[in-house]
Amino acid sequence: MIRLCMALAVVVTIGGCGDSGGTTADTSAGDVTRDTGGADLPSADGSVDTADAAAADTQRDGAAPDSAAMDGASADADDAAAADTALADTALADTAAGDAAASNVSGQLLAAGLRHSCAITAAGGVKCWGANSAGQLGSGDNTSSFAAVAVKNLASGATAIAAGATHTCAIVSGALKCWGDNTKGKLGTANTVAANEPRDVLTLTGGVTAVTAGTNHSCAVVGGAAMCWGDNSLGQLGLDPQAVPNSSVPRTVTGLSSGVVDIGSGYNHTCAVLADGTLRCW
Question: Which ranges constitute the DSSP H helices of the chain?
Fold first, then answer.
């Protein structure tokens, strides 16, 4: 009996083990203490102490988050997201504005001919450099230049420029001007006299939106129509070369009196982009 009580004492302490009367142990000293993995333990009367259970749950799961703090963090995240969205919208608006500004440019701002080059300045003027034997620099003389020289009487208003082999054309305030060699009438001045400064292209005093220059011919888009002048020996003006071998004034390309949005030329041929996205070449 004594040996049994000693063995049991290792696990639990039971009051009155040596008491032959079997007196009930004091409940405060006789409560069983053990690790239950967080399970609620009944009190001596069999009920669960809810306060202790809540404390145990808190200790096991960690402190319950402050709902006010959570709401504040959520609001901060929403504000940050809104700020990012506003920034993205601003960037898109800036991009759209940039695209809109770019779409107002009538044509290229830089052009290179056979042995000369020209560019439009920030002020809308034109400067050229290189060979000038035919006056293609437009400087008022025929002196070649390694440095850019200003084109005479063209300090502002230029929006697009094109260079052929030995001549140059520019859109200026919607009108077209050309200078340089005038073989086959490619300056569009109703003659074949060369010019070392800009000359007005006959009839093209407004509405010009694109220009190009080939070897001995020139073309432009005017009010949606494709118009060309100069050499037509190979049909580069878009006209029957037997009927019109060349022209010193602009003529409408056959079948392209409307719907043209852009135009370009090679050595002896021309191509145009139409509003429907199709391409025509001749």
Answer: 2-11, 27-30, 50-61, 67-103
